[in-house]
Amino acid sequence: MAGDVVVVHPRPRNEPYRMVALRVRQPGVVLRGAAGAGLYIPLSGEGADLSGRGEHPRAVVQFDPGADGCVLEGFELWGARNADGNAAGVRVSGARGVVIRDCVIRDNDMGVMSDGGGLPDGARGLRLESCEIRDNGSDAHAGYAHNLYLAGEEAVVLGCRIARARTGHNLKSRAHRTRVWGSLLIGAAERELDLVDAAGWTDRPGSDVWVAGCVIVKAQVTRGNRGVVHFGRDGPADRMGQLWMLYNTVITPHAAPVVTISCPKASVWMEGNLFAGGGAASGRRLLVEVPGGPAEGRVTGCDNWVDAGYGAVLPAGLRATRVGEPGRSLPWRGPVEADYRLRAPVPGITDAGAMCGELESRLGGLRLTEFVPPWGWRPRPCRGRLDLGAFEWSGER
């Protein structure tokens, strides 16, 4: 019923609830797992009909038009498969204001999918917070099945760990607006972020994407595209907006361009980012690619730090770029565990960004966040000048 709070308790030994295929159509429903601190109620889609035909959903849990303001929290969702390779752990089809919080979504064709559901503002206000979304993909549909595949009006991703998309991208979005705050994206088979087009959604002005305070890491072994971020189109529509990359730490061992801007009405502003090579050999590398160009006026920003290999081919629109010394590695705390905080201050990185308050004022009140492992977030400390990259150096060893 509308507005109900449904608390799901664990089975004996927290065995999974099996063949789950739940379709929600009422507003304000809260589905809450009660397994206890640090535990999740397991919901398995194995054996369920997740074809999307008739009354059957295409997800373990699906929120349809009318299910506005629903909340899903405290579950582990896995085993969603169908013949089309698009069964998801969670699907939001048109429902507005849905929150998915503190869930583990793994080993499905798709982790989370969203779409407009036939509504002019369908999926507006979708929020994914403090979730682990990992190891999703379909071998039979390689390149088309992702950890996150988002569309519709809007999606916000906050404090999530998005890892090892098996056959696709970690985060693919065709939504009108996408915000990715204080998250870790690591080890996708294809790109970490693929931010592309959809008719009626991204061909409207203001089809912006914000990526801020994130740690973005390409694996040494990458099966598919070795680029990190693509902003533009892969279809016939357009992307009329700007990619804002702010105070991220980006690690890639590959020579492929870090950022690709692929349509004429798309642009990028890059500020406060740290681009490092993950131990790769030094050499001439390309930070931003604009196929068909030119990059002038479409690639702008300031106060970024780059490995020495990027220094020879920097876009003219990037001001005050700091270039690292050839052969020098940064003192990361624990790169094997994807801990890309610095162990010590580094000139040109520490206190090298904007004044915290000035940045917030200039960007309309934007408050930066930091990723907190294993998954979660906190407000970024705001005291004077910001450090470049995704974290403030705290003095902890």
Which properties best describe this structure?
397 residues; mainly beta; Pectate Lyase C-like; twelve-stranded parallel beta sheet; 1 helix; 2% helix; globular
Outline the secondary-structure elements.
Blueprint: E1 5-8, E2 22-24, E3 30-33, E4 41-44, E5 59-63, E6 71-73, E7 75-78, E8 88-93, E9 99-101, E10 104-106, E11 110-115, E12 126-129, E13 132-134, E14 148-150, E15 154-158, E16 161-163, E17 171-173, E18 177-181, E19 184-186, E20 193-195, E21 209-212, E22 215-217, E23 229-231, E24 241-246, E25 249-251, E26 259-261, E27 266-271, E28 274-276, E29 288-289, E30 299-302, E31 305-306, E32 318-319, E33 322-323, E34 332-334, E35 339-342, H1 356-362, E36 369-371, E37 377-379
Parallel strand pairs: 1-3, 2-5, 3-6, 4-7, 5-8, 6-9, 7-10, 8-11, 9-12, 10-13, 11-14, 12-15, 13-16, 14-17, 15-18, 16-19, 17-20, 18-21, 19-22, 20-23, 21-24, 22-25, 23-26, 24-27, 25-28, 26-29, 27-30, 28-31, 30-32, 31-33
Antiparallel strand pairs: 34-35, 36-37
Give an overview in words.
- The chain is an all-beta fold and 397 residues long.
- The chain has one domain (5-283): Pectate Lyase C-like.
- 2% of the residues lie in helices and 34% in strands.
- It has 1 helix and 37 strands.
- The strands form 5 sheets. It has a 12-stranded parallel β-sheet with strand order 1-3-6-9-12-15-18-21-24-27-30-32, with no helix packed on it.
- It is globular.
- The chain starts with a strand and ends in an 18-residue tail after the last strand.
